[in-house]
Amino acid sequence: MMTKRLPGFLLLLTLTRVAGADAPGLAAVAEWQRDLFTSRPQRMAGTFVPIAFEGGNGEPQYHAFVADEADSTPALRYCESKTPTLRWGKARYALPAVTARWRRPDDPTDWSPDSIRRYQWPTTVAGKPQTLTCLDAAFAGLGSSGGLASWRAVLVLQAGKPREWLYFAGYGASCEAVGTLNDGRIGFVQLTRRDGDDGLSAQVFALAGRGKLVPVQAYVLRDDAAAVKGLRVDSLSAAASH
Fold first, then answer.
1. Strand order, beta sheet including 178-181
2. Confidence (pTM)
3. How far is CA 93 from CA 27, 44, 59, 185, 223, in A?
4. Pairing mode, strands 151-157 and 128-138
5. DSSP 14
6. 101 SS3 class
7. pLDDT tens for residues 25-43?
8. pLDDT along the chain (242 residues), means of 10
9. Residues 39 and 124 sit within 8 Å (Cβ to Cβ)
10. What single DSSP character describes residue 10?
C-alpha cells in the first residue's frame, strides 16, 4: 500500500483496474496520462498512402497524408530514402538530424509509413496560442509482436517552422502521452518496462527549449492486490517544482 499521499493528478490512476498479475499495460496508465495535461493533441482521421512515380511499378516515391475530412494545412509527406524525411509544405525535417538534436542517435530513423498517426493540437504555451501538429509512428523492421511492437517515435511540429518543437521515442510513446502541463509547459510521459519486476517506470518530462528536456517526476507502477483497484503508485523522485 502507499504510505504517502498521492498528488491530485494521480488519484485517477489508483481507480484504474489492472487485470491479472502482469505488469500494468499501456491502457492502465492512459487516464493518469490524460489527467497530467490541460490540453493535448486530438487525432485527425486519415492515413498515409503510398504515392508512386507516374506509370511506375516500383517502390512508392513517398507517402502522403490523406485526411478523411477537409484539411487546410500544408501537404504532409513522408519520404523513404537514404535519409528518411518529413516534408510539410516548404519545410523539411530530416529524421537523422532530428534525433541528433535531441541526443537520441541510437533511435532508428526509418518509420513504418502505414503506422504514422497525425494529431492536431490547438493549445496555449507560455500564454501564447499555438497550433501544433503531432505525429507518432512505429519504427520499420521492429516487428508486430512483443515489447518492440510498442516502441514508437513522437514528433511535434509547427507549420512553417524549420525546427521541430519536440522529439522523443520509446516504449508506449504516442501523441496521447504529450500535452501542456498544468503550469503551461509542454510535457510528456515516457514509459519503461521494468525487466524482472512487476511494474513500469513512468518518467514525466517538460520541454526546456528546442532539444532540451528536464525531468519533472518519476514513478513506479506496480500490481498490488491490497491496493485500491489492485494498482499501486510509488513516487521515485520529485525534480524542481513547476
1. 37-39, 178-181, 186-193, 199-209, 212-223, 231-238
2. 0.80
3. 31, 20, 21, 23, 41
4. antiparallel
5. H
6. helix
7. 666 667 667 778 889 999 9
8. 30 28 59 79 93 71 88 87 91 95 91 93 86 94 63 92 93 91 89 68 87 86 60 57 36
9. yes
10. G
Task: Mention every residue, 6+ apart, whose C-beta is less than 8 A from residue 183.
Answer: 242
β-bridge mates for residue 187, sequence order:
179, 206
Instruction: Please say whether the beta carbons of 12 and 24 come within 8 A.
Output: no
Distance between CA atoms of residues 7 and 106, nearest Å: 34
Q: Which residues contact 19 (CB under 8 A, 6 or more apart)?
A: none
Decide: 231 and 28 in contact? Cβ < 8 Å.
yes
Positive or negative, the CA dihedral 70, 133, 26, 8 is negative
